[in-house]
Amino acid sequence: MKTNWLLSSSAVVMGFFGLVGTFLPEEISNILGISPLPITKVLIQIIGGLYLGFAMLNWFTRSARIGGIYNRPVVLGNLIHFIVVFFALIRQLMEQFNFIFVILTFIYFGFAVWFTFFMRSNPVTNNVKKSV
């Protein structure tokens, strides 16, 4: 199984969230029903920056060997991120149903399962490029 798809797709998703959070903090706070105070906008931009950083990490690591002991910090960082956000979304859905949160919950659950698989897999079967 190729890790290129996993890291590329997570980089695209995180990059999208990062760009939106960085450049549209007032619109996001209005959509979420939060008053767009200066501190709220700055915190949303900080979160957007974190997402962009993770996206760049995933993008530039996408062709590396993943699994077992190889690139374990990259896989573990992504896994923890996706699991924590998944549980936060589940908690939010239990308080108030929102269709956007349902979609995000499925996306985050899928990435959490996918990264769990690669965390416990054999890196030889995960090779992106085979040597000739």
Automatic annotation (TrEMBL):
Membrane-crossing residue ranges in chain numbering: 5-23, 43-61, 73-93, 99-119
Alphabetized UniProt keyword annotations: Membrane, Transmembrane, Transmembrane helix
Protein name per its UniProtKB record: Multidrug DMT transporter permease
